[in-house]
């Protein structure tokens, strides 16, 4: 085992990112004093491009340097002891890159939020740990990049900035991830971690500017505030002479249009977005040298579809925010033997790839092992101050055959493995990591929620998994609960199956098992059409002109929905119908209802309420009804009947 | 005008069909087609769909009507803004082959 890596080189206090390439990606090494950022760009080389429709969207390396200089000029230097961070919220990837590089140049650390929900962004922005917000949207306040970088300002040119080589141990970004406890965990990445990985990825996947001068042109469907998007769609192009798309297309037709219009050759995406490409006709996507997918396993069906329709193979990357990239594999490598998007790595790897379709291969410089099936990782992409090897939350199983590469001293044992899932209470939903505990905590914070439990079930389709919830919250509707959760959580992880129940199915010791939650959820959902009504034992029972009933409003009464999403109430017509039906059951000779008089609804009736229905037959063809709840009248009215059997319709 | 009335009736029918499609394709078991208001936002505060739902819905719309979404994501956001706007988009694109 070579111990040249991992820790030795990066633990050196004087190392800067300029010294990384010779260690991790020799083919990308340049001057030992030069930052790897833009090291492979000529001044006129592109770093960013946009859709054709957006004229003038292209940005060169020189323009990027001068735009960074513009932002640097208005940014205060970060005091050495200031623990605060800058929050970057930019929908334009070029703006994001400018903000990031300017903040780093001024010594700041940048906070990357877990999602882009407005409420969460505002809460993060107001956090004491945030010194400034740099953004390009009307929804935030802080430093707006748009006027600063606008064309008309450029009359006063800014000197292109020489980027400082950042110390490898400096913390550059803080990623907020979902932790298993439900709190967002802040996780810092050092310059060494980020750039060692970006350089490794660029070299390993052949993204660096080639001898033919071809440069990587990256289109990403994922935002750059996630670590995967940050690395693959921003940092990798910046260190390898490449360029990225400013937009983040989502719909298949837009992804196609962006790829075609920008002559992109790399697509960075996730399984759910790739799956949606199926609506395109065969051959409608251009040849791409790489399609990357991460965040969740690519369903074999999606891999097949991409291969059959567009002759595209997908390079999947396994990793996590904490560990960085761990391993990779290429979907369906063996179907075509000839070239055409299917080649994966120079150096005669084709054979081992063919029999290892479902197996993962560690990325260069990554060493893996397992204890009781749990994956342990050691690599230069790990936090310098964390445990080594790093215990992940992933369960793996080694492939029976270990691929060794004898005769090549620099290559270690290549452990190929199968990924079996995670070991903790965290799941991936639509490639987003979510802690069950966090959904529960947010549910419990909603006013009126008394108890809540969340479990995750497997579902088909792009989602893979989805959370389901049981909630005790008298008077609340699933729509209201979801709207409240949406203020905080990514829409993808909000439970769409939600049952309002009177009590959680807890065991006598208070424990709640996943099985019990699922049993409750899986019950066929009764479409409760009627109020629960039974005769009330009372003195009135013997009175031939009186009848009394005990009424309960089931929480899942079908008619509760629809009227007011946030505030479910029993429609008046449902109360009226119950009174009519009960009157007719008691006195069948009443016949058809002719009209209703003096109808009054005195207050709204909500789910979970217990009340009494009192019928009073004042005349042979007339019944007065009243719904009463603890001596308070809810509704009253007078029903007139034909007093002969109604003709059947 | 009778033509207008007919167009509006077919639009309403299409909206009903779309609501059923949304509920079926996205397995929204807490929602019935008639619960969906034609004008309420599909994403966010209305029906509460997310980007993955919208992609799934785009696939279902393509399967059913042979209509693809446009090549501009900001226009697509408008098209997938509500059942009404989606129905209007489909009815103008359905007849024309691409």
From TrEMBL, chain B:
Phosphoprotein is among the record's keywords: yes
Gene3D superfamilies in alphabetical order: ACP-like
Transmembrane residue ranges: none
Annotated signal peptide: none
Keywords for this protein: Phosphopantetheine, Phosphoprotein
UniProt xrefs under PROSITE patterns: CARRIER (PS50075), PHOSPHOPANTETHEINE (PS00012)
Domain Carrier: 12-94
Name of the protein in question: Acyl carrier protein
């Amino acid at each position: 085992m070579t111990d040249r890596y991992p820790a030795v080189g990066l633990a050196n206090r004087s190392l800067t990112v300029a010294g990384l390439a010779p260690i991790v990606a020799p083919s990308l090494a340049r001057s030992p004093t030069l930052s790897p950022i833009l090291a492979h760009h000529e001044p006129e080389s592109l770093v960013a491009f946009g859709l054709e429709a957006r004229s003038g969207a292209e940005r060169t390396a020189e323009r990027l340097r001068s735009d960074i200089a513009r932002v640097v000029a208005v940014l205060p230097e970060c005091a050495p002891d200031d623990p605060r961070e800058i929050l970057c919220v930019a929908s334009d990837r070029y703006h994001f890159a400018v903000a990031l590089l300017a903040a780093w140049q001024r010594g700041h650390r940048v906070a990357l939020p877990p999602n882009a929900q407005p409420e969460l962004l505002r809460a993060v922005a107001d956090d004491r740990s945030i010194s400034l917000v740099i953004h390009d949207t009307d929804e935030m306040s802080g430093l707006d990049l748009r006027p600063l970088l606008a064309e008309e300002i450029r009359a006063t040119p800014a000197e292109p900035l020489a980027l400082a080589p950042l110390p490898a141990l400096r913390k550059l970004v803080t990623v907020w991830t979902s932790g298993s406890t439900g709190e967002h965990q802040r996780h810092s990445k050092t310059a060494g971690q980020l750039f060692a990985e970006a350089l490794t990825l660029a070299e390993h996947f052949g993204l660096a500017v080639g001898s033919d001068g071809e440069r990587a042109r990256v289109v990403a469907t994922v935002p750059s505030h996630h670590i995967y998007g940050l690395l693959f769609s921003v940092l990798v192009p910046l260190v390898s002479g490449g360029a990225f798309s400013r937009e983040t297309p989502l719909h298949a037709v837009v992804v196609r249009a962006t790829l075609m219009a920008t002559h992109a050759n790399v697509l960075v995406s996730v399984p759910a977005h790739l799956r949606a490409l199926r609506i395109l006709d065969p051959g409608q996507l251009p040849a791409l040298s790489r399609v990357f997918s991460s965040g969740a396993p690519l369903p074999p069906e999606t891999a097949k579809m991409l291969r059959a329709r567009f002759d595209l193979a997908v390079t999947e990357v396994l990793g996590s925010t904490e560990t960085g990239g761990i391993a990779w594999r290429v979907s369906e490598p063996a179907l075509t033997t000839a070239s055409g998007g299917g080649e994966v790595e120079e150096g005669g790897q084709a054979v081992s790839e063919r029999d290892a379709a479902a197996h993962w291969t560690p990325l260069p410089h990554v060493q893996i092992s397992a204890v009781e099936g749990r994956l342990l990782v050691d690599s230069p992409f790990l936090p310098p101050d964390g445990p080594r090897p790093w215990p992940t939350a992933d369960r793996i199983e080694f492939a029976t055959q270990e691929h060794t590469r004898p005769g090549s001293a620099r290559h270690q044992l290549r452990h190929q493995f199968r990924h079996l899932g995670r070991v903790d209470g965290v799941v991936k939903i639509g490639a987003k990591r979510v802690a069950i505990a966090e959904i529960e905590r947010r549910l419990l914070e909603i006013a009126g929620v008394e108890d809540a439990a969340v479990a995750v079930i497997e579902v088909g389709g792009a989602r893979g998994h989805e959370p389901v919830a049981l909630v005790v919250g008298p008077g609340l509707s699933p729509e209201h609960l979801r709207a409240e959760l949406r203020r905080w959580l990514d829409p993808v992880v909000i439970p769409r199956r939600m049952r309002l129940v009177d009590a959680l199915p807890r065991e006598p010791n208070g424990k709640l098992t996943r099985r019990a939650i699922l049993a409750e959820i899986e019950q066929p959902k009764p479409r409760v059409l009627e109020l629960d009504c039974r005769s009330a034992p009372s003195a009135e029972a013997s009175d031939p002109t009186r009848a009394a009933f005990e009424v309960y409003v089931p929480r899942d009464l079908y008619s509760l929905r629809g009227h007011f999403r946030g505030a479910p109430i029993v429609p008046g017509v449902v109360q009226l119908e119950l009174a009519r039906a009960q009157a007719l059951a008691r006195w069948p000779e009443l016949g058809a209802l002719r009209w209703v008089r003096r109808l009054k609804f005195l207050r709204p009736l909500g789910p979970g309420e217990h009340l009494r229905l009192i019928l009073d037959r004042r005349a042979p063809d007339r019944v007065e009804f009243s719904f009463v709840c603890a001596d308070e009248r809810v509704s009253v009215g007078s029903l007139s009947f034909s007093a002969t059997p109604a003709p059947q319709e | 005008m009778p033509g207008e009335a007919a167009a509006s009736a077919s639009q309403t029918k299409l909206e009903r069909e779309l609501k059923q499609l949304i509920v079926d394709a996205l397995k929204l078991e807490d929602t019935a087609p008639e619960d969906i208001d034609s004008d309420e936002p599909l994403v966010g505060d209305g029906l509460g769909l997310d980007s993955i739902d919208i992609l799934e819905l785009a696939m279902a719309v393509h399967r059913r009507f042979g209509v693809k979404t446009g090549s501009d994501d900001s226009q697509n956001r408008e098209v997938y803004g509500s059942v009404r706007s989606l129905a209007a988009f489909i009815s103008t694109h359905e007849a024309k082959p691409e």
